[in-house]
Amino acid sequence: MRKRIIAGNWKMNLTPKQAKELILELSPKVKHAACEVVVCPPAVDLQAVSEAISGTNIVLGAQNVHWKESGAYTGEISAKMLLELGVKYVIIGHSERRQYFGETDETVNMRALFALESGLVPIICVGESLETRESGTTNEFVSNQIKAALKGMSKEQVKGIVIAYEPIWAIGTGKTATSAEAYEAISAIRSTIADIYDESVANLVRIQYGGSMNSRNASELLAMENIDGGLIGGASLKADDFAAICAAASK
Ligand code: PGA
Asked: Has 117 been annotated as catalytic?
């Protein structure tokens, strides 16, 4: 059985002090969650959050990692830096990184491979634009993103990764994919993994839905047997909303 995983992508929100306050408010509300509870704060908040989650069931994630161990890469963050702060998960290839910061399928692949080799668990994001959805090629599009992202990964490595299916048109828009739309794209992702590796590997990979998931629509989305959790943006900044999503994932 795949353990569900709810991850909060805080994006570029909250100072270290505010981050600490949110954890203090959130931790008692999620302490009985049966799913994995992850928060992914901005890099400068990681130290404060790492301390604040100590002794709780909240797990730490980051929003990016570089593909080299160290060196002249101004503005980037290394796996070793993240590991020293107790980071376990790292979001890679979020559509905002692809759209605004030149992230490509190739850099997503390099970051994911290096994260795995370093002992971090990548949360690899894929998802189609509205144009792609309307042209009827969503499954093919996400399948190609998956093939590119997983290039060179061993069976053993792939088993542990997390994938987030996030239709771009649903991110931050309040427009959620229907559970049927999410189910279909996630099925396409899982069968792509089965084609590259095999069915048993595909059945171990956890695939989240992301894109305006909130306390009102989480139960319906998570009722789909192949949706293994959520990557939550806006709603992860409010303790009550995020805790309600974790509760929905714990059923
Ligand atoms: P949202 O963001 O929940 O605010 O739509 C999701 C994401 O970008 O991961």
From this structure: no
